[in-house]
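Hi X.,

You mentioned you wanted examples for the new student's onboarding notes, showing what a folding record looks like when two proteins sit in one file. Here is a clean example. The first protein comes first, with its sequence line followed by its structure tokens.
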Amino acid sequence: MKIKEEPKYYNYLKENSFWIKNFNRNQNLYKEYVNFLKNKYRLRVTDKLSDAVDSIDLVTNVLNTLK
């Protein structure tokens, strides 16, 4: 199964077993599960870009205060 290949997905599934019940009822919920976890763990591309911009702003502010 695809979930075991991704450690974060598998660990979350072990901690929140209600998703197992949902998968047993409807196996097509995998995309919904992946999207939910991407939002929860901030794994979307937009989240990564936002984090990078925040890091750049932090470095810029630190450098400006050192001047």
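Then the second protein repeats the pattern, sequence line and then tokens:
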Amino acid sequence: MNKRTHHITEGSMMVALVGAALLANRQLAGILEYALYWVLTFPILVYTVRYGMRNALIVSFCMLAISFMLSLPTTIFYLAVSLIVGIAYGEGVRKKWPNARLLWITGVITLFSYIITTIVFAQLFGYDPMEDVKLLTDMLNAFHIGGVAIGELVMAISVLSAVLLSVLQTICIHMIAHVLMKRLHISMFPLKSAYDIKAPKCIGYICIVIWLLFFISNMVKLNESIQTWIIVIWLIMMMVSIAYGAMTMMTMFALQGKKNRIFLVAVLVFVPFINIGISFLGIFDICCAFRQKLKRGVANGTIRKL
């Protein structure tokens, strides 16, 4: 009886937290909805881990019922996605799923929600595809890039943006969930450190080839579709190489004991031309396993020999 009462009390508290967040979002004209809606994942995630999926479904229904009274249809959709992610992730933690499986499930659900909100029902969620076309045209003119199929490029960049945002959101959810589980003394598989995350060397060589194709496409007149897909592939390569370059810079700062500079990397990756240098550093790291060599060098006291 006491255990059941504890379930109901904690469930009511989680519903109240979500209700307060929805009310704050309404008072702030939807700012929280567009910036941090994924934070709504954590109340139901914690509840699922502690009491299981069956109890979590009841609490989720109550949260959705409150959202129908306090929120717009778009907010209800965002909340529903957050609840699905939280229940799926929480149940995975209960069943001791590995981190890779938790990341994949969270990423797929998140990507589906971004595709719905930014592509399929863009106008309903306040997005204007024509503004994206105009912005992209101005960017291409600024970089003196011509001869591309704008329609295809806009669609491809929209999908890439959805993928990138999904990856970033998935990482945030995963890392914060680990912190919460540690605080609650619930065991999970440990996170990999930045030293241990590596890609096959062939990825680095492919990145070099893509850079060469991108330079050649700017000097030689090609078919519009070919030119468009070269730019799309180049953008994918840039995202991958910048990610590894950023991890390399963070590793270097950490090994030097300058951890306060790690947050500077998050700013530099968005600075034009500097992010290109970070991309080259990432390609070098992939091809030469630079971070692993740095770690071994520091451990063995032979860092100067690298």
